[in-house]
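A quick aside before the break. I want you to see a complete sequence-to-structure record at least once, exactly as it would be stored in a machine-readable document. Don't worry about memorizing anything.
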Amino acid sequence: MAAFIPNKEQDQLISELVAHYEQNQGQIKRLLDSLGTFISDSESLRDLIHSSKRRMKDPAHLKRKLYKELREAQQEGREFGITKENLFMEINDLGGYRILHLYTRQMDQINKALLQVLKDEAQCTVIEGPKANVWDTESEEYFRGIGIDVSYNPRLYSSVHYIVQPNNKAKVTLEIQVRTLSEEIWGEVDHKFIYPDPIDSVACKEQIKALARLASSCSRLVDSIFASHDDWKKSQAAPAIVSPQEVPVQTVPQDQREDEKK
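That is the input. The structure line, written in tokens, reads:
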């Protein structure tokens, strides 16, 4: 396949799109700040979330992504289609908000509470998602069981994604990611080696896959610890059942029985 070499007009277009992002990213920052306030103030989410973080896309990374989109459009024979007017709608991860929690089985409650906060408090519409990125059948079955769509990820990436847009009809979107602390460790390590350009080291790729499996095992272990704790609390709260063999039999002394007969 021939190497992709953009012409001057394409270079100029990409430069203009990146400049437009740099000059107008304030509206994404304001949306991130507003969303962060509503999520952190939510009583229904407070006990479920360990921490959160937010970020704006690096302009250099956006430039690489736009060139990639341009190359793929050209190879597929379709129009590039991204303009300054629709940039903030077509590229959904210019702003990102990440929610970190302790264990996978919290996701059912988190999803329900988050959707409620987005609708009632943040006044945002979920235009895509929630969708869980999974690579194993156990996770797939769990997320499908709680009503979340799944997408198989061959890189062993795990996270639940939402794309949201404010209801004020502003032409801007951002991405919300929800993942466990163990998945965050893997994600941060993986990001260093595959973004913006993937490494070619086979050894590093295999070690990152091994780390993904280890992170998944950690999340499952934490799930098990909390499930065991819940069972223990239930057993402590339940009334004790005394078997007939354990009921003490009160005996009457022989002399007392003789007196009663008289």
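Two observations worth writing down. The radius of gyration is 28 Å. The mean pLDDT is 90. We'll return to this after the break.
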